[in-house]
Amino acid sequence: MSGTASAGLPSSRANWVPRGRDGGPSAQLMPDAWTTMGPADGVAAACALARAAKAAAHTAATTVSITWCFMGISLGARRPHEGLPQAGAGCTIGPIRVIDITYRVYPMIKPGLTVHRLELFLAVLDQGGVGRAAQACHISQPAVSEHLRGLEAHFGVRLVERHGQRVRATAAARVVEPYARQALALLRTAQQAAGEVRGLRAGSLTIGASTTPGTYLLPAALGRFHATYPGITLRLEISDTRDIERSVAVGRLELGVIGEAPLVPGLAAEPWVKDELVLIVPRGHAFARRRTVTAHAIAGEPYIAREEGSSTRGVAERYLARVGVTLTPAMELGSTEAIREAVAAGLGVALVSRHAVLARDRRIVAARLAGPRWTRDLRIVRRLGTPLGPAAAAFRDLLLERP
Asked: How buried is 264 (Cβ within 10 angstroms: 0-12 exposed, 13-18 middle, 19+ buried)?
């Protein structure tokens, strides 16, 4: 029997077409499992597939010619001792005689849309040829051709037709071309904008803060930041401490400044500035003439407090509990400014941050509490394990450098 069959071994699933005596295809076999094989077992695998194909197609072939194909592998880098038989050599495995071995290398072409492929596609159109595009882009001509085929595989259409050394854009290419140019222009704009943000020449920053730091301390810091980075748009959100903690924890805010240690998990806190709790009274009040006032003395006065959830209220309650005094608020107000106005109007006394007592407001007087000073740290909070953006990192550095 003198029939000859050809077997191809690409590194992926493929058709194998045996041939009968007349050289025409007599049957077609699709292997159930076709795996990438090492060079040492390639010939044996090819012969095994040849035998399977022969049996399946009921051909009379007893000899095979093997074309061993590699996808994306350079044969030049391989050595004979790695198991590759010489091209043109023959061998016998069982009843099958291998009369010829041929090696071919095919580039691995993966379909896909990338910025690089769009740039090469437009370069080919602009330069009028693959060779000129390769020179302009400083890569090899085969690489340009490979990327073009990958782009064609992605779109499912042919983009260029070759005529000698030149290429002609197809109708499909003319449809794709304006979108490709627009996409690359938008990407360049995005890259430029990202550079502006990275260099703090543009962008925005929102800082969250509880009432005391947000009202009395951060505006000056924001002013210093704006003087240094005028291109950054700044926004300050003032809310109670727990709201700020939650907003930072979920990533809605990068940075927050609060009046006590955070309770929400997943936050990192850094001490920023010291704050002290003081008693404020109307200027004509009897306490206004005292150097210090005891907590027990406050118990006989109408007490004005911040709302639940305020860090100022929490600090005041811890102080009162420590000295053994319980105060029932005569009224609760939602801001320190409202408390100051109520005290100035003679409605009661209050415990507030020293930063909230303005020297120019002569309607109220701040008195120290008797005993050790009751202080707290105002803290900068951010998410654990999440790097700050350029603007937030610069603002944090500014706060820590100059409280």
From this structure: middle
What tokens appear for 199 in the block?
């260099």
The answer to whether 120 touches 138, Cβ cutoff 8 Å, is no
How many CB atoms are located within 10 Å of the residue 102 CB?
Answer: 13
**Residue 249's closest CA among 272, 265, 260, 237?**
265
Q: What pLDDT digit, counting tens, does each position of 202-253 carry? A: 889 999 999 889 999 999 999 999 999 999 999 999 998 899 999 999 899 9
Tell me which residue of 214, 224, 304, 220 sits closest to 259, measured CA to CA. 214
Structural domain count of the chain: 3
- Indicate the SS3 state at residue 46: helix
Domain that holds residue 172: 115-198
Give the model confidence (pLDDT) of 42-79 as tens digits: 555 555 545 544 444 444 444 545 454 444 433 343 33
User: In this structure, which amino acid lies at residue 328?
Assistant: T
Task: Give the burial class of 202: count Cβ atoms within 10 A of its Cβ; 0-12 exposed, 13-18 middle, 19 or more buried.
Answer: middle
Domain match, 192 and 205 both: no
* Two structure tokens written together for 381: 């909070």
Which H helix or E strand runs over 365? strand 364-369
Could you give the C-alpha distances from 288 to 78, 285, 364, 368, in angstroms and in order?
A: 94, 5, 8, 10
**What's the number of CA atoms in the CB half-sphere (13 Å) around residue 136?**
16
One-letter-per-residue 3-state SS of 226-246:
HHHCCCEEEEEEECCHHHHHH
If asked whether residues 90 and 48 sit together in one domain, one would say: yes
Q: Which two tokens stand for residue 161?
A: 């037709």
